[in-house]
Specification:
Organism: Danionella cerebrum
Bound molecules: zinc ion
Number of strands: 30
EC number: 2.7.1.107
Largest sheet: 7 strands, antiparallel
CATH topology of the largest domain: Tumour Suppressor Smad4
Family: Belongs to the eukaryotic diacylglycerol kinase family.
Subcellular location: Cytoplasm, Cytosol
Structural class: alpha+beta
Pathway: Glycerolipid metabolism; Lipid metabolism; glycerolipid metabolism
Helix content: 25-40%
Strand content: 15-25%
Number of helices: 21
Distance between the termini: 42 Å
Shape: globular
């Protein structure tokens, strides 16, 4: 049995190298060629494979050894003293665990073992692939005793003529029709009507199969469970025509507005029947029914009785019910009607190519949910799955599956809806940009479920600094009581002094949070916390930024930023800022009162009732600045000066705030030498230039309700 590598798959999500890239290193001209002996690699070669693939320097030696042993077969000649494993077995195994399409994985595995490239594998070679599939399933915590017969059946079916060989088309075709195998290979799901969204699940209580009605057996009670309707089957039963998944839309406009329960049998956990108020006993198999939308429970015999009307339960305000969605014949719209974002999207069409439309339900605010599954480790995927269960899967969009365009297009004609973005600040910025570009008739307000760390925007909108696994139902309830606020967004335009000079590309054209030049509170701090918190990220995704941090923490930057005021000038609405009495090492332009995970550079200020129109375009008088509060909707940015590393440490720990320099509706900064800069936490190195920051627009955001004690993660 293979040891489970804790965090290994999360690790892989952030890495750039694919198995096939690592494999190339073992070719004759590759960096690791000398560790390959024919078809095999030795233990050192295996260690280097892991190191290269996972981009992880300190992979535990003991774990590496155990993993290596798990690849040894009777074919590896132990007696000769040569401890080796087959390179293709290792490659096949890791490619199965990788991100990607099942079809590609099946093909990759096939080609790996098709040594002579004749497009045919003999049965022993296919057995080897299957052995690696079991290996991978085992790693993922599956009980492989059930998968083995499923795969055996598949092989019998594939090799119809019993020739003992399998061609690539036969192999791929067989694999693509095998539901448990597809789940194992990480089927990327697009919601087709009637098709369950399967995932492998273990239960800690007795559960019955919706197809054969028998109990899920085995120590781990493993089964395939639909993410949307919780229909549950044995792995083997998933291939036996299970009942279709719940409908996510009605068949015609006439049927819209007819709200009826949608029952799925079984697994009612001894709950109470909503009709007769008696307990539903589930001792004898598949008993009781649960409504997919309102989650009401009934006895089998009570389900056919009144009331039939489904009110969508606790989350009715958020749910886009099936009876609000209907198909229409596809009509080609003119270019103006169809923003480029929505090109050929398959997500909002029926299997026969009709386009889905929404008929609004009065007094509801359907929630359009965008999830960035790559945010916050595996948290994103979990959140995606839970929302697909709590709401209609047609209102929950996976951003790695076509971006925000399809969702925004689908909802665009609704008069009243809200958006929930699940991801980091960068994801929120992406959605706000998409809303700008989509030319929507109404700009829906946006709430944030912060995934990962350092979410400044989410934090100051009272959605917390990072999702801590709290029940999503409570977050939905908080959204109902949230209030709309306007948030300024700023355009930043960077013009090079010398157009020949080449710096890094400027990361964004829009500032949502903040912009800074020179040393700022983050640099040293971020370097250390990043390293402690995400060593693996630091080795891969952050690798290209490493030089920046090294530079930032070295003496060089400190020295080069010491005389910052000599190499830049700042003009606010035509007024030149006087920097002569300050020892500046950094400048920050703030839109929101949180930076780098919660430090407040402007500092506290009493909120005044002064109307915005009274406010001058620019304030530089220190006495007035002293009493000016920061506000994300006043069409002004706050400009602060940062004096040095020690002061920054104090700012970070909340002991001090930075020097207030101005509050302005426009700012122009000219620099005379290359300086490090950052927008919303994305750093880059910028050659001499002129920077213009001007007001772009206001985004409609949702501010979470006032914190009840201990409820929000405000740290
Ligand atoms: Zn079954
Ligand atoms: Zn289903
Ligand atoms: Zn219902
Ligand atoms: Zn009943």
């Amino acid at each position: 049995m293979i040891p489970r590598i804790q965090g290994c798959s999360e690790l892989k999500n952030n890495c750039s190298l694919k198995v096939k890239d690592v494999l190339k290193e073992f070719n004759a001209d590759g960096r690791l060629a000398k560790y390959r002996h024919g078809e095999c690699i030795d233990e050192e070669g295996f260690r280097l494979f892991l190191k290269t693939y996972l981009e992880e320097e300190d992979f535990p030696a003991e774990l590496c050894q155990r993993l290596f042993r798990s690849f040894q077969t009777s074919e590896s000649d132990e007696n000769s003293g040569l401890w080796e494993v087959f390179l293709k077995d290792v490659s096949c195994y890791f490619s199965l665990l990788e991100d990607g399409q099942p079809r590609d994985k099946l093909e990759f595995a096939f080609r790996l073992y098709d040594r002579d490239g004749n497009g045919v594998l003999d049965s022993s070679e296919v057995d080897r692939i299957i052995a690696q599939m079991m290996h991978a399933a085992d790693y993922l915590g599956w009980d492989v005793s059930e998968l083995r017969p499923v795969l055996k059946d598949m092989m019998t079916a594939i090799d119809a003529d019993s020739s003992g060989t399998v061609s690539l088309p036969e192999w791929v075709e067989g694999g693509m029709n095998n539901v448990p195998l597809l789940v194992l290979l990480g089927l990327k799901v697009t919601q087709k009507d009637g098709q369950h969204l399967w995932r492998m699940k273990h239960f800690n209580k007795p559960v019955y199969c919706n197809v054969c009605q028998n109990m899920l057996l085995g120590l781990r009670k493993q089964g395939l469970c639909c993410i949307c309707c919780r229909y549950t089957v044995h792995g083997r039963c998933a291939n036996k025509n299970p009942a279709p998944c719940t409908r996510t839309y009605v068949m015609s406009k006439k049927e819209t507005g007819i709200a009826v329960h949608d029952w799925v049998s079984g697994n009612c956990d001894s709950g109470k029947c909503d009709r007769c108020q008696k307990k539903i006993k589930s001792l004898h198999g598949l008993t009781g029914k649960r409504c997919v939308w309102c989650h009401t429970l009934r006895h089998d015999e009570c389900a056919n009785q009144e009331p039939f009307i489904c009110d969508c339960g606790t989350f009715r305000d958020h749910i886009l019910s099936p009876w609000a969605i209907y198909p229409v014949i596809k009509v080609t719209l003119s270019l103006e009607d169809l923003p480029s974002l929505c090109d050929d999207n398959e997500l909002n069409t029926t299997p026969d190519g009709q386009v889905l439309r929404i008929n609004p339900i009065p007094d509801t605010h359907p929630l359009l949910v965008f999830v960035n599954p790559k945010s916050g480790g595996k948290q994103g995927e979990r959140v995606l799955r839970k929302f697909q269960y709590l709401l209609n899967p047609r209102q929950v969009y996976n951003l790695s599956n076509g971006g925000p365009g399809p969702g925004l297009c689908f909802f665009r004609d609704l008069p009243d809806y809200r958006i929930l973005v699940c991801g980091g600040d960068g994801t929120v910025g992406w959605i706000l940009d998409a809303i700008d570009k989509c030319n929507l008739p109404v700009r829906p307000p946006v709430a944030v479920l912060p995934l990962g760390t350092g979410n400044d925007l989410a934090r100051c909108l009272r959605w917390g600094g990072g999702y801590d696994g709290m029940e999503l139902g409570r977050i939905l309830k908080d959204i109902e009581t949230s209030s709309v606020v306007h948030m300024d967004r700023w355009s930043i335009q960077v013009t090079l002094e010398d157009s020949q000079e080449r710096g890094d590309p400027v990361p964004y054209e829009i500032i949502n949070n903040y912009f800074s030049i020179g040393v700022d509170a983050s640099i040293a701090h971020r370097f250390h916390t990043m390293r402690e918190k995400h060593p693996q990220k630091f080795n891969s995704r952050m690798k290209n930024k490493l030089w920046y941090f090294e530079f930032a923490t070295s003496e060089t930057i400190s020295a080069s930023c010491k005389k910052l005021k000599e190499c830049l000038s700042i003009e606010c609405c035509g007024t030149q800022l006087d920097l002569s009495n300050l020892s500046l090492e950094g400048i920050a332009v703030l839109n929101i009162p949180s930076m780098h995970g919660g430090s407040n550079l402007w500092g506290e200020g009493k909120k005044t009732d002064r109307a915005n129109q009274d406010m001058p375009e620019v304030i530089v008088d220190p006495e007035i600045l002293k009493v000016s509060p920061q506000d994300m909707s006043d069409k002004r940015v706050e400009v602060v000066g940062l004096e040095g590393a020690i002061e920054m440490g104090q700012i970070y720990t909340g002991m001090k705030s930075a020097v207030r320099l101005a509050k302005t509706s426009q700012i122009t900064i000219r620099t005379k030498k290359p300086l490090p800069m950052q927008i919303d936490g994305e750093p880059w190195m910028q050659p001499p230039c002129t920077i213009h920051i001007t007001h772009k627009n206001q985004a409609s955001m949702l501010m979470g309700p006032q914190a009840k004690s201990g409820f929000f993660n405000l740290k």
